[in-house]
Design brief:
single chain, 300 residues, alpha+beta, Metallo-beta-lactamase, Chain A, 2 domains, six-stranded mixed β-sheet, globular
Amino acid sequence: MTKSSKILLNYHKKENPDGIQIFQSQKDYDNVILIAGLGGEQYYLIEGSEKALLIDGLAGVGSLRAFVRELTDLPVTLVNTHGHVDHIGADFEYGEVCIAPADIALLYAHSDTEMRLGFAKSGGTFAPLPVEPRLDDVTVPGPIKTLPLSDGDIFDLGGVKLEVIAVPGHTNGTVVFLDRALGVVYSGDACNRNTLLFGEESTSIEQYKESLLYFQSFEDSFELLWGGHGGAAERKTIIADAIGLCDEIMAGTDDAVEAMGFDNRPCRYAKAKNERFQRLDGGMANIAYARNRIWKKDTL
C-alpha cells in the first residue's frame, strides 16, 4: 500500500488554446488514481486487469471522460456514491451510471449547469483557482441510463473486487465501496469531517446512526476511508466518532452550533468548528443537521 508522489495532469480544452488545468490527480495505490476537480471534490479511478471503475463524476466542469481516457485504456464503468451536484457531472458525458434508485431524482435535480458551475467556483474560497471556469465548460445535462446499485453488489474488475455497502444518511441513496484486498473504503460523503444531514434528501439522525452501525460491522475489512473531499484518507475510527455524535444529538447534549448551510438552509453543527471545518475540540467527525429531522418520525 505504498503511496507514490503526487502527479498533476492537465486537460486542454479545444476552445481554450492556451490550455487550462481543470483536474489534478495523484496515484494512491498501484491501481488507484485520485482525481480532484476545481471545487475540491475528489473521486477515484480503480483499475483491474479487465475493467476500470470510476467512483463519482465531479461537478462536470471540463471533460472528465476525456481526462480519464488519458489515464486508462480499459473500459470504464461509472458509479455514483450519491446524487449530489459535485458527484454527478460526468454522468451526462458517459450517458450511463450505476446509482442507488433512491438518489436518481436527486441526480436530475442537481443537473443544473449554473448550480454545478457555482460549485466549481466555490473552490476559490480558500485559494485562488488555477482558471476561472465558464458556463460553456460545464457538461450539458440530458437523459441518463441509470443502473441500480444495491447493498452487497460486487464489481469484479479482474483481480480487483469492490463491494457495495449501503449507508443512507447524507442522502437516502448513499453507498460506499469496499476493497477488502487493499483494506480501504471509497466513502464519498457518507462519513467525514463535515457530514451534511439537514437536507430533505437526507435521513434522520436516528436512521443515520443505524446506517453507521451497519457500516461499522465491516470495519475488520478496512483501515482507511478515502472520501469525496479533504485530500487525505481518514482512519476508520471516524465512524465510531460519528456514532457518538448521533447519540449526543439525540440526547440533546451536543454543542448544537447554529449555522447556515448550502442554499441558505439553517442547520446546527454537533461540534463547534473553525472556518475550515476543523473541530475545536480536536475530534474527527462532525455532523450538520436540522433540528426538526432528528428522529425517524420527523422524516416520514
